[in-house]
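Support request, please re-run this one:
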Amino acid sequence: MKNVNRKILGLVAVVVLVAVGAVAGPWIYINLIKQDAPEALTLEPAISTTVATTAPSTVSTTLEPAVSTTIAPGVDDASALDGEWAVVDESVVGYRVQEVIVGQSTEGVGRTSEVEGSLTIVGDEVTGAKFTVDMTTLKSDSSRRDRQVDTRILDTITFPTATFVLKQPIKLTPEALDGGVLSVKTKGTLTLRGVTRDIDFKLNARLVENVIEVNGSILLVFADWSIPDPSISAIVVEDRGQLEFLIRFSR
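Re-run finished. Output below.
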């Protein structure tokens, strides 16, 4: 009888240890091992009088201000901006999703600087804009997540790029021409995972010397883009996420 009781106690102990490990393991990983998700992409205060156009060694979260403490000047004549502006290397596009790993909440963030495109300005209007993102180069802090994104979730072999095209002109205000931030709601056409849809979203834009900075995010409901449920086993992912962008254009 004593042997039976010992076996039962041993089995209970094993079950308890497994249960504790199932909860403690994710907590330790998320709170002690996993790197914090990068902050949302934003426009930093425009304090630079010079803007570099070479790619940084790592993908940055924000546009870094330079050493100068004076506000970058704007332009006196809107026509001085006329022409085509090309995407430069410091541009960043990525995703942000909310995850729950065995009851522990965290964020998954993947980004890339492989962005190409341009915008066109005529007078005081942005008359057109288009950019393409190489989705095969998206990277997060987890190689396991990256494999899921590349294969099952975004199927980047079949759909290697995502494309955005501006659908309506954007009026440049005098404040924006003077170096202030322009916040505007606009429309565009986004192609993602082989699905093309018109979208409404808000963006912030700013002219810093000879660089136009455009920043914002777009809420994506995965089902609208034929994206399968990203959840796997003990990792539960929300049914939607943010497409974040911080794109810089220069001539």
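The radius of gyration is 23 Å. The chain has three helices and eleven strands.
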